[in-house]
Amino acid sequence: MSINQIFGYAFGAVYVAVGLLGFAVTGGVGFVSPEGGLLLGIFEVNPLHNIVHLAVGAGFILGAVGGLGSARLVNTAIGVVYVAVAFLGVIVPESSQANLLALNVADHALHFATGALALGVGLAADRSREAIAVR
Q1: What is the DSSP letter of 25?
Q2: pLDDT (tens digit, 9 = 90+) per residue, 50-64?
Q3: Under a CB-based contact definition with an 8 Å cutoff, are residues 43 and 110 in contact?
Q4: pLDDT tens digits along 21-37
Q5: What are phi and psi of 68, to 5 degrees?
Q6: pTM above threshold 0.85
Q7: What is the CA radius of gyration of the chain?
Q8: In sequence order, what are the beta bridge partners of 43?
């Protein structure tokens, strides 16, 4: 199993768990409300945000199941999207109706860290293994 696959399985499991746990704190929160419930006391989430976490987790896991090439592609793609979301989150005011995922500063930091890590793993890890597999 490759580093990209291990990363995909691990982060996929975490994101699925976070998505499910998020529903425990979003009772009574509007589906796309800019103000959500607090997960772990600091991360703001709404039901749409929870569904996105579930989808991202499933994406990581499916990428890992698909093998090295698939895992690298998924890790890189999710990394790019998460870094972009982190930067957009800084631009969109938290109280704005455009904040569809109820993102806050803690979310931005975590999304940037996750995105950078996924991007780094997707682009840099297992390069020699993939080159050997192609031969």
Answers
A1: T
A2: 999 999 999 999 999
A3: yes
A4: 999 999 999 999 999 99
A5: -60, -50
A6: yes
A7: 16
A8: 39
